[in-house]
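Attaching the record inline, Q. Sequence:
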Amino acid sequence: MLLLLDERTDALVARPARPWELVMAGLCAQHLDAELARGASPDATGPLALRAQTLARESFRRGLARSARHILAEASRPAPTRPVLGPAVPVCRDRVRAAAAELAELIDRLQLPGPVPVRGVAQVSVLLGDGSGPLYHRGSPDDLRARLTEAAGALSPPG
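Structure, as predicted:
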């Protein structure tokens, strides 16, 4: 069941998800995460609402926390002497080590019980999944520490 904003009445309307919305929420997850990370309202469209429901799950946040712990552990190990085979994109070890405190704080916030703002979870999802971002791409102009601090702050419940 989705709660969506009806633009004509400015009221929330409950309705079941349409099959095409379910498909779009899966196929366009990265794009939807980017929209939610920028502050798009989760009740604006069916696909956004469905993706927000996924991001809101504690199990999803635990998976992001696991990925972030893996990145932190990988950065603390020496770089491989031979190229790594497979789809893995290597992290910028020095950047991750320099931002270890911020990454640890982010991991802690991801593991908090109860609901957290979906925008923050979306920011983490985008950061961890963006191969051209500051975690993985040396040429990225983004400051990793600032991005981690912003995402951790966005995970704080309002109030």
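The chain has a mean pLDDT of 89. The longest strand covers residues 2-6.

More tomorrow.
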